[in-house]
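In this section we turn from sequence analysis to structure. A common task in structural bioinformatics is to predict how a protein folds when a small molecule is present, because the ligand can shape the pocket around it. The inputs are simple: the amino acid sequence and a SMILES string for the ligand, here pyridoxal-5'-phosphate. Study the lines below before reading on.
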Amino acid sequence: MITGNLQQILSELPEHVRLVAVSKFHPEEAIEEAYRAGQRIFGESKVQEMTAKHEHLPKDIQWHFIGHLQTNKVKYIVPYVALIHSIDSRRLLEEVDKQAAKINRTVDCLLQMHIATEETKFGFSFDECREMLATGVWQQLTHTRLCGMMGMASLTDNAEQIEREFCSLHNFFTEVKQQWFAASNAFCELSMGMSHDYYQAIQAGSTLIRVGSNIFGERDYAAH
Ligand SMILES: *Cc1c(COP(=O)(O)O)cnc(C)c1O
């Protein structure tokens, strides 16, 4: 089932869009099946769970961290994480930089933007992000590289609202790229779109979709 689901999604993806297979709460056997089908990018939202999976599974897997990241746990993922999607404060970015400097590694990061109506989601508002960039502090960081932005649309059936939220993020991404990253080829990723809304996200300019349940089935939260 996993292999079929994966191939179905990949067959529809435009060339400039990459798939992050969100394997959180799923066992290592599920990841191994997707790996055998050729998938190499996996997304996780818990530090302990991702670190255990990283230790057990093939070393050419690219682990993307997509959940809320606490500063005291940064050090556990910095040695191996391929991309952190969820930088939601200047303090967190500075902590990633500090831990990465200790082991002389550069860690790729996305700024998480709050575009949904739900209060529960993390991320910068557009104004908070503008303010953070205007401080210039991030330009002094030597062991993190800002590669773009991530966002989650509201959990709603209203397709127009989802479209509006994704488009607003794409517009903001373009604004920030022009103002601060015009000379940076690395600042090119827009991570948006999940199982129920990735078609719309691609329409709105996503370059990384994060798909879990459409590949692996429903998550068994009770088992954790
Ligand atoms: C769990 C999760 C996903 C995947 O959600 P699905 O609906 O299962 O595709 C994507 N992004 C983030 C940030 C998540 O936490």
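The two ends are 23 Å apart (CA to CA). As an exercise, try to locate the residues that line the pyridoxal-5'-phosphate site and compare them with your own expectations.
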